[in-house]
Protein: Right handed beta helix domain-containing protein
Organism: Candidatus Thiodiazotropha endolucinida
Amino acid sequence: MKKLLIFTSLCLAFSVAQAKTLYVDNSTGNDSTSYEANSSSNPWASLGRAAWGSTSLTNPNTGQAARAGDVVIVRSGSYNVSSGTGERYIPVYNPANSGTSGNPIVFRAEGNVVLSSSTNTIGEPLIGTYGKSHIVWDGFILDERNINTKADTGPVVIWSSNNVTIQNLTVRGITSSWNDNHNAIRIEQSRDSLVRNNTLYGTRNAGRNRNGSSIMLYYSNNITIENNDISDSSGGIFVKGANGGPMTIRYNYLHNIDAEGIAIGGLGTASEQYGGEIYQNIVRDSSAGITFIGYDSVSPANVDVVNNTFYNCSNGGLFFKPSTNGYRDLVFANNIIVGNTRGIQAEDISDLSSMTYRNNLYSGNGVTSRVNYSNYSFSSWQSSFNKDTVGSISSDPAFANTTANTLTLSSSSPAINAGVDILNLQGRGTGASINLGAHITSNDVIGVTGTLPEPPAPSTVPPSPAVLY
């Protein structure tokens, strides 16, 4: 057995050592080049050659395609593909191989790399994964006006996959002719994946509702969505189908959204300890900040909405609909809810017993809350429902700047150290004080950032739930 283990270890070490940097250049490359001969001076001409191991989508060659540990550098240029899968869940550039833990296959744009398709099929995503694991797509530009998509999909799809990272993309969407799901990035039946630092705009469906969200999730677990800039779309981020969790949505800047910045539908159940953590996001100049949709009697459940800023939303900062008994263990703490028509819009529900509100700041809203068709001021909201009675305030937050995604606090702001760090965001314990709103320090980056560490291995251990003091 010892000899077998040593032999296996040597084989793994040899496999990792053989990982290559591969090159694609459509101005100088040659797809006849073998995998072994590919180099900086001897690149392939097409991205398909790197992903499929051949020039035929329907006849892939795993031995000639990018392998675990390989980095595929795609040089500047416009890359069009005429082959299509015709399936809404299978991307054109679905890799022939998977990576492994610690050795993903990375497809990375060098400079401006624009991907398009001119397929004659009925439409499909362009990049992503179907049935693959440990894949990274990094830095590409996609313009859906030049991509053949169809209803219930989008340019980027992760389906039946795990440990996939989608980062640094720019995706310009379209207003679709269909009133169905239409997304820039869609994740379905997948787990342990990361969507970060992408700029997504212009994605709408015909109805201009949340089904046209830039990012949509179905039946997935342990997904992190962070540092994205999402704008000018029907919806921002929609956790739609029956997702068990945990989900982490953080550091996103969502603005000028027709519906809401974040929508939470099927997430968590009454029997699960973890649903999701939504923190340090800014949603502004949209219809709603965050919407909770009670599809059934068990979800959304076990979701913490902490240290977010909801600014100038016409239908409410926090929005709840419709009338079901599905809301379970929802925590709203340390949020700044300012300049909205209603701070809390809960017109269609009457039972708030499973929701905790504390250490929030309300200011400049038409009314603090509207519950079961009645309006409530800050004081009557507190007295009528026993909510926001601990640490919450009604006061001007004294923003230092209200332009773009800043909404930082001035030194005189009453929001400074007015919260309790129930998610331990600053590492000083869950009972420590913390600023209210998305900016808890002067160094926070909300939205895209120019510097990113290598993708961490997503944890399979759910985060600790909020500890309420």
